[in-house]
Amino acid sequence: MSGTTVPRIRTVEVFRHDRPHETDEAVRLLTDAAREAGVELVFDADGPVRADICLVLGGDGATLRALRKHAGTGVPVFAINFGRIGFLATVDREDLPRSIEIALSGQFEVVSLPALVADGRSSSERFAINEISFQRRPEINIAHLSYSLAGDWVARVPCDGLIAATPAGSTAYSLSVGGPIVAWGVKGFVVNVIAPHALSSRALVAAPEDVLRVVNDGADPVDVVIDGIRTGELAAGQDCEIKFTPDVVGLAQLPDSSFYRRFREKLLQLTS
Fold first, then answer.
1. Torsion-angle region of 126 (φ positive above 0: left; ψ -120 to 50: alpha; else: beta)
2. d(Cα 215, Cα 236) in Å, to the nearest integer?
3. Which domains does the chain have, with CATH numbers?
4. Of 61, 71, 73, 269, which residue is 20 to 30 A from 140 by alpha carbon distance?
5. Residue 233 burial by CB count (10 A; 0-12/13-18/19+): exposed, middle or buried?
């Protein structure tokens, strides 16, 4: 897994998760290190920031939020894990001074992550770094969804929903419902049916140029959920087209990082 390097760091946007008291010590160390290095810090900005990197002090949720904000900006995201698993994290928090030094000095590489875009709209609520899912509502017994790839009908399945996941997202929601793990760098995306009422239904990995079309064949609407956020609904009879878009945002990685080593280490946390 290779990537590009980062020039001199002058301005850093800092994201923290929703338990900021857990990162107070990290903020103190970061502030001291930034002052010494002549780096400006911008904390929790709502709007655009002209930063060289975005530094996350949090878990995968905060990292995902930072990745979504900086999609298409060229600003890489460097994440120090303060969550449970931290599959998207650049480093864990055990050695904070060294992690901060790496971030502020640019001693890391940047790997490009793709996104999935719904209905051709690149606005933030319609693209996904991890996944786009179509989910039945709790009051509905079952959803009836069909989908096609590259114009060819694939399946119509009674189910609880359907997930389209990027390689980064293949280790998130899609994995939890039995989907395949796809290494970062693979050009393609996962299509995975949630709790299918059909023995023949299987998850598959689609080619990057293949457009996914999902149709709600049922009588009730299903929720459209993008990176864990409900963004709307797919009404009865409606369809949604999803396209794979490469190189949308950069995630910082240590030079000796490996997807497979990361997966092995993080998987052990999941099973412990």
1. alpha
2. 8
3. 4-108+254-271 (3.40.50.10330), 115-246 (2.60.200.30)
4. 61
5. middle
Are residues 202 and 168 in contact, defined by beta-carbon separation less than 8 angstroms? no
Q: What is the pLDDT of residue 1?
A: 46
- Quick one: DSSP state of residue 144? E
Cα atoms found within 13 Å of the Cα of residue 155, Cβ hemisphere only? 18
Q: What is the pLDDT of residue 198?
A: 84
Q: Which residues of 186-223 are buried (b: 16+ CB within 10 A; e: fewer)?
A: eebbbbbbbebeeeebebbbbeeebebbbbbebebbbb
CA angle, residues 187, 214, 62, in degrees to nearest 5: 60
Q: Please give the structure tokens belonging to residue 78.
A: 């460097």
For the chain, list residues with pLDDT below 70.
1-7, 120-125, 267-272
What residues are annotated to the active site?
60
Residue 173 CB contacts under 8 Å (≥ 6 apart), including other chains: 130, 131, 133, 163, 165, 228
Q: Please state the φ and ψ torsions of residue 31, each to the nearest 5 degrees.
A: -60, -45
Q: What are phi and psi of 263, to 5 degrees?
A: -65, -45
Name the burial class of residue 128, with classes exposed (0-12), middle (13-18) and buried (19+) by CB atoms within 10 angstroms of its CB. buried
pTM listed for this prediction: 0.90
